[in-house]
Prior knowledge:
The chain is an all-alpha fold.
Amino acid sequence: MHRRSGRSYVRSFERDSVAAVITRSSPVALALTVTDVLSVAVLAFVGYRLVKAARITIDRRHRTIRLLRGLRVRHFALAVPVWLGVVTAYVALAEVPGLDVGWWYAIGGDGNPALGSTSAGGGALDWLPFVFIPVLAVALPVLVESEERMFRLGAETRSTAANLRRALWFGLVHAVVGIPIAAALALTVGGCYLTQRYLGAWRATRSRDAALAESTRAHLAYNLTILALAVPLLVYLALWG
Length: 241
């Protein structure tokens, strides 16, 4: 009787062990592991691109210094109401079913992957934003100038409708980096603002270079303002979140 009980206990233990292994290997557990791997892979790729852009900024330091010297209080002051407009538009659009989705969120990311924020790794990667943000700040001059060349340069030759479409595409292209569709659409507000800065400088100078420099500075100030707002929040989440 005692031997049978012992065997039964062993068999029961084996069944429980197998069940535990199966549970740990369930699709849900595997999915979590895959999303963690995907998040880390995305962050590695984004980090590589940021470092590359930062190196270009440093290599073009004379051009970067001219750009930075042209920044004025107005660039930062105007960035705040524009940011509020973008946030307001996002809040409204996020209420529309299907617009609050983004692939970065789906694999465990938070915010914008360029900030290095993710819930992957169970909190082990909470320090990454403190590495990504300084590199992003250095890379911004090159990144924003490339976007201004793509979406604003030549705006003086296009119709109002064509410039509005460019502003829309400017927003939507950010969905590629994983932010929710609603956020990408809301960035159309920012695109319209930057187009206005470009056209204003064009009318005043009749120079494409001057117009591009003005919209690039406005864009740079806008992004630096967002970083200044994001850093305290990220510090709080890392320490007490």
